[in-house]
Amino acid sequence: MTIIQTQELCKRYGTAMRVKELNLQVPEGSIYGFLGPNGAGKSTTLKMLLGLVRSTSGEIQLFGKQMGPRTRVEILRQVGSLIESPSYYGHLTGEENLRIVQTMRGAPAEQIDEVLQIVRLQDQKNKLAAHYSLGMKQRLGLAAALLGFPRLLILDEPTNGLDPAGIQEMRELIRSLPQRFGMTVVVSSHLLSEIDQMADTVGIIREGELVFQDTLAALHGRSRPHLALRTTDNAVARSLLEKQGLGCTEEEGHLILPLLPDHQVAALNCALAGQQLGILRLEERKKSLEDIFLELTGKAASL
Description:
The chain is 35% helix and 28% strand. By secondary structure, the chain is α/β, with parallel strands linked by helices. It folds into two domains: 2-221, Rossmann fold, CATH 3.40.50.300; 226-286, Alpha-Beta Plaits (2-Layer Sandwich), CATH 3.30.70. The strands form three sheets. The protein has a six-stranded mixed beta sheet with strand order 7-8-9-4-10-11, with helices on both faces. The radius of gyration is 25 Å and the shape is elongated. The mean pLDDT is 89.
């Protein structure tokens, strides 16, 4: 089942189109990494999914139901979210903050201790939220989102501002949710390295447009290994390779060839040497995920 499906989803602010004809498909039980540079339209998209921002045009379906004024409340009962920074009452304890959310959501009272344990805040539940560290506030926000154990959890930049230990802790927690509770998780980030360690499905957005959507394995698959060759005369070498049926391109002074088995590489060396061509460099290369991300988003961004 597809938990989230959007069709031609758009959001315009004045003359600026922030989200353009977005067609998301989020499989049930997946961790869907929603990637893009800062300002690409990730938060706007997630707010539309939650009914916090009205779309200019297009359709949203959650759990197979069309999102609209009549269905919004019913649908959102099955959704937990943490958008931008967590909200809390600083003069109340962590437990008291969760009790308010539990009452509003109509969740069982015993779930408060359960979610505090999940996010590892049980020993800090009687501490005022104003005295929590940034990482503890993020975990409190996640605990509030988990109340009622929703089918869908939407997290916007959940590791923002956390130290390395906090990032690792949040990442491990998010990774465990589908298996432990059957949740589908949508997590947005501008950090490719984070999504690479959490998600199994990826959507990449650039200037409001979806430029990639597939499994993480498919994204890795775009990083195909190849050979880079530089000789004393690349023009002559290229002509020789093409006569032997080896198509190649030129890139930054190197001839780019498909990855060849060892015996073909040895034969290639002999053919070049036979034409008095010196091999200055021959190496196997592979694009990193960061290179692929930059190609897709068309700009340098935080990785």
